Amino acid sequence: MALQHLEFSYPGIPGASIPDQWFHSGVVGSGDMEVLLTRKEQQGKVTVKVCTPVRGFEQVWDKVLERFVLESGCGDLELEINDNNATPFVVGLRLRQALQDARGGELA
Amino acid sequence: MNYQEGQNHSFLEATARERANLLVDEGSFTELLGPQDRMTSPHLPALGEAVSFDDGVVTGVGRIGTRPVFLISQEGRFIGGAVGEVHGAKMAGIFRLALEAYEAAAKAHPDNLDLYRPAVVISFETGGVRLHEANAGLLAHAEVMDLIQDTKGKLPVISLIGSKVGCFGGMGFVAAATDAIIMSPQGRLGLTGPEVIEQEMGKEEFDASDKSLISRTTGGKHKYIMRDCNILVEDKVADFRRALCELLAQPYEKVCACRRIGSYELVKEQMDLVALAAELNPGDAKDVWRYYGNEHPEQLPELETAEFLRVVHRRPKEVR
Amino acid sequence: MQETQQRQWDTLRQDTARRLAAAEEAVGAGKLVKAKDTVKLLEAVIHPGDKINLEGNNQKQADFLAERLCRVNPEKIHGLHLVQSAIALDSHTKLFEKGIAEKIDFSYSGAQAGKLAQAVQEGKVKLGDIHTYLELFGRYFIDLIPRVALVAAYQADKDGNLYTGSNTEDTPVVVEATKFKQGIVIAQVNEVVDRLPRVDIPGDWVDFVIQSPRPFYLEPLFTRDPALITDAQVLRAMMAIKGIYAEYGVQTVNHGIGFDTAAIELLLPTYGEQLGLKGKICTSFALNPHPTLIPAIESGWVKNIHCFGGELGMEEYVKARPDVFFVGPDGTPRSNRTYAQIAGHYAVDLFIGGTLQIDEDGNSSTATATRIAGFGGAPNMGCDPHGRRHASQAWLKCGAESGTAEAALGGMPRGKRLVVQLQETFREKMAPGFVERLDAWELKEKAGLALPPVMIYGDDLTHIVTEEGIAYLHKCRSLEERRAAIRAVAGYTAVGLKANPKETRELRASGIVKTPQDLGIDPAKANRSLLAAKNVRDLVKWSGGLYQPPGKFKNW
Predict the structure, then answer these.
(1) Identical fold between C21-218 and C226-538
(2) C-chain residues within 8 Å CB-CB of B209?
(3) Mean pLDDT by 10 residues, chain B (320 residues)
(4) Which residue among C534, C545, C556 places its CB closest to the CB of B215?
(5) Domains with residue ranges and CATH for chain A
(6) Which residue of B185, B207, B212 is in closest CB contact with C554?
(7) Is C465 strand, coil or helix?
(8) Is the pTM of this model over 0.95?
(9) Which one of C223, C225, C312, C556 makes the best mutation probe of the B interface by having the most chain B beta carbons within 10 Å?
(10) Residue B13 to residue C175: CA distance in whole angstroms
């Protein structure tokens, strides 16, 4: 019953982080999620912590996150995700939007 | 979204954080206990419920002109904006900060305090107590009610109600205890939510699937006619902000004159209303609107806000 | 010769006459029967084991008569065989619980889908067949001929003439099948008037008229609140418009129910306009009066719409747009499901809708293991009509692209209907839209069906649109290639995870799969701000106040 905590790590691009120390995006609505991006110099690595009520989708999280890191070309980042039943499409979209906004400096 | 664009957006669709940033002067909002503090609910994980870094409420301080504005902005998308332990403590904390700021302002600006008087602004979007942590949530309601009493005579507390969930449950009481309420027609204010009324009293008494009925009973236009809402604005961030700025520009006593409760006269007014309701025994809000001189009550919901404000007859201050 | 002379040729008529005489004894003479005498009337004219049609579909319902039929004495009347479009009301399932009815042949079940499945499993209902509307209508004239029909109309006059207006729907076909085989027709009406706006059903085809104490139930099934459309739906709608409607120049269309198709309708005046598609796509529809189509109609996109039924709240709008809708000489609209289904089957180039599950071969179903949902009319539109002989640009292009036509027909040119499924790879609560085995198989076992209930078969399906891309399935040359194309757009579902990246790249290169990028669409920019109306109130404004939404959708 309890919430699940998942952790992932991917090789990213050293230096391809975000301009500010941290950036927050999204709302933990039903079928949605929030993400907190934090700058973290770790040889380009992107580390991800997911907190979710949904069980049995570790492999899907891994694939979605791996694809995001690969396609967005980010690195030296920690992502902390609070999920509430977001679909893989929504997860991918929110992560791309968050990174875009973090780099464009738009109002959250 | 930048600040200017954001002003043109629907208040109804804006997130709590967008509202907080957009209601005060551009760039002036500082979030306190924001997501980076990761202050999540200690109760939800054991129940397997998703958590949020801000526990569903954005709190912080900004400026409107020369005045510090302490903001509480609830997020309905997270568990319906329900008030749990952290959420409630953040609300209470904002009141305490505002009261401290008041003491400082009173000391620093004894002659022109109105210019520097802090304000508390609550952008409600909540169904009241979070059932998963109900004891803590209830306590938080009581604490906030108490703190509102501490503000009396010192600083204005303004309610903004125009978000999707509306303002229901115990927070409906809290809103009623603030000094002034600004709503949009899309705003909803009440105690027992529509679904609960239907569940308890039956579909014949209240059909919660009838959205038009919900609007006529709890919506901004009805609350404006009944004087539960002081200022009715269009569903636009800029319109809420403008109304808020204009209200805060008034002398403090004028803001206090908007209150619904808190004096012998106001209690008498409310009691007269109760008696009138028993006498009229209205079957629908439209019956009350007609009673107050609106000849075609069925047309009021259809009118655009500006036109509505031009033609509507509100309840007079004297109930009858 | 001898035998022929002795045989009586009008036994049905004689039986009907006896039943009508029994009715006269029970409730008195005359066509108008009081509501309180309804049960007596039903007990007089219905016999055990009769085939009964209780009119109703996914829109209007003869709900008063259905509810009264539940009150007949099961010792007198039992073992009825319901032959009707829908099993949609509590009272319909109650007939089986009480033993009044024992068998059902139907098309659509909607809200009763769960109860029906349960009743079948418990042996309380003998399930005949699950049909499409047209198929069932056909059987009304062959082997499922109703003995008594209980129908609904807005108004009747004293002679029994009926006005069914914008919700004419199934009434003509039900009444004709019943009456012309000497059956009995009973109508519930909202009011009895001296003069009808027009006669939709002639009075001499109607035996009894009962003024119902309340108007017949009407489900606003086709209304979608634009406020609930998601960004993902906007994205799929943009992909469909650019990658299919524009690509094939689709002029004649049927839209299934759902938020995805509502999003398409609301993007025509904005995104469609930007792409310069006005007049080039979506000019003619076989479609219910969807409120979300109002902005496109008002912006001049739509030439004409023929409706299956009426939609609650749209009556005045439809009436005021006779150039677009089918409106009678009296100035009020009429619908006729039979004709609209024929139009949808033969005369439109594209069907587009959503489903619950698609399997690896492209078969799709809305059935789950615990719900017998039925088909409605979708399969008649979600298929390639093999009797079609007229040509159009979209139909010809789709046929010319077919990867298997040559193997089947040699060099003979033939067109193909575009049959499109808009599918979210995962729905709410992470329910996958693509599965290795349809739940329909489990339902087949549990409910003892002859076939798994498949809404659209894989060989009819030409396109799947998901957030991941569009699969142009008809271009595939083999089942293996088709499976690869489905995997390529199935996202992170168990089916999608089997996709081979190299294979997907090849499919993209050959135009069998197109991702949003291939179509020039940025998913991050697909959002609700593109919708021509963002809520129901906007729709009312677009309609100039003519659309009057029911309370369920009117949040002001």
Answers:
(1) yes
(2) 551-552
(3) 92 97 98 98 96 98 98 98 98 98 97 95 97 95 98 98 97 97 98 91 90 96 97 98 97 95 92 94 95 96 96 85
(4) C556
(5) 4-104 (3.30.230)
(6) B212
(7) strand
(8) no
(9) C556
(10) 49
B91 domain residue, yes or no: yes
- B31 falls within a domain: yes
Match 């999204």 to its residue by tokens.
Answer: A26
Rounded Cα–Cα distance for residues C305 and C542 (Å): 18
Cβ <8 Å between C556 and B209: no
In angstroms, the CA B128 to CA B138 distance is 9
The reported pLDDT for the residue numbered A2 is 87
**Which chain C residue shows the shortest CA-CA distance from B9?**
C529
- The whole-angstrom separation of Cα B138 and Cα B134 is 6
Per CB-CB distance under 8 Å, the chain B contacts of A22 are 36
Task: Output the pLDDT for position B176.
Answer: 97
pLDDT of residue C6: 86
- Nearest chain A residue to C432 by CA: give it: A87
**Interchain pair C232, A96: CB under 8 A:** no
The predicted structure's pLDDT at residue C312: 94
Question: pLDDT (tens digit, 9 = 90+) per residue, A17-52?
Answer: 999 999 999 999 999 999 999 999 999 999 999 999
Question: How many residue pairs from chains A and C have C-beta atoms closer than 8 A?
Answer: 38
Residues 297-356, chain C: which have Cβ within 8 Å of A? none
pLDDT band at C270 (very low <50, low <70, confident <90, very high): very high
Mean pLDDT of C94-123: 93
CB contact under 8 A, A82 and B51: yes
Answer whether A82 sits within 8 Å of B34, measured CB to CB.
Answer: no
Q: What integer is the mean pLDDT of C160-178?
A: 97
Put simply, whether A29 touches B (Cβ < 8 Å) is: yes
List the domain range (segments joined by +) for residue B159: 3-189+228-259
* A85·C428 Cβ contact <8 A: yes
Give the architecture (CATH level 2) of C226-538. Answer: 3-Layer(aba) Sandwich (3.40)
Residue in chain C closest to B217 (alpha carbons) equals: C556
CB contact under 8 A, A24 and B18: no
Token pair 């968050």 in the structure block, residue: A98
For range C342-369, the mean pLDDT = 95
- Is B273 a member of any domain? no
A59, A85, A100 member nearest C430 (Cβ): A85
Determine which of A40-49, C226-235, C367-376, C389-398 has the lowest per-residue pLDDT on average: C367-376
Query: Best interface-test mutation with A: which of C228, C429, C430 has the largest number of A CBs within 10 A?
Result: C430
Cross-chain residue pair C552–B219, CB shorter than 8 Å: no
Nearest Cα to Cα of residue B78 among A81, A31, A92: A31
Find the mean pLDDT for residues C66-72: 98
φ/ψ region of B202 (left if φ > 0, alpha if ψ in -120 to 50, else beta) reads left
Alpha carbon B151 to chain centroid, angstroms: 16
Instruction: Report the CATH number that the domain containing residue B112 is assigned in CATH.
Output: 3.90.226.10
User: Which residues on chain C are in Cβ contact (under 8 Å) with B186?
Assistant: 555-556
Q: How far is C428 from chain A (nearest CA, A)?
A: 7
- pLDDT at res. C2: 58
pLDDT of residue B279: 94
Pairing of strands B67-74, B57-64: antiparallel
CATH number of the domain located at residue range(s) C21-218 in this protein: 3.40.1080.10
Indicate the number of domains in chain B.
1
Cα-based distances in Å from C497 to A93, C465, C479, C491, C500: 19, 17, 19, 7, 8
Question: Domain for residue B309, yes or no?
Answer: no
Q: In this predicted structure, what is the pLDDT of residue C394? A: 98
- pLDDT at position A106, please? 47
Q: Which chains form contacts with chain B, at 3 or more CB pairs under 8 Å?
A: A, C
Structure-block tokens of residue C499? 């996709």
Answer yes or no: is pLDDT of A105 > 60: no
Strand spans (E) along C394-475: 418-422, 434-435, 463-466, 469-472
Query: Domain ranges in chain C?
Result: 21-218, 226-538
Looking at residue A108, what is its pLDDT?
34
> From start to end of A11-107, where are the E strands?
22-26, 32-39, 46-52, 77-84
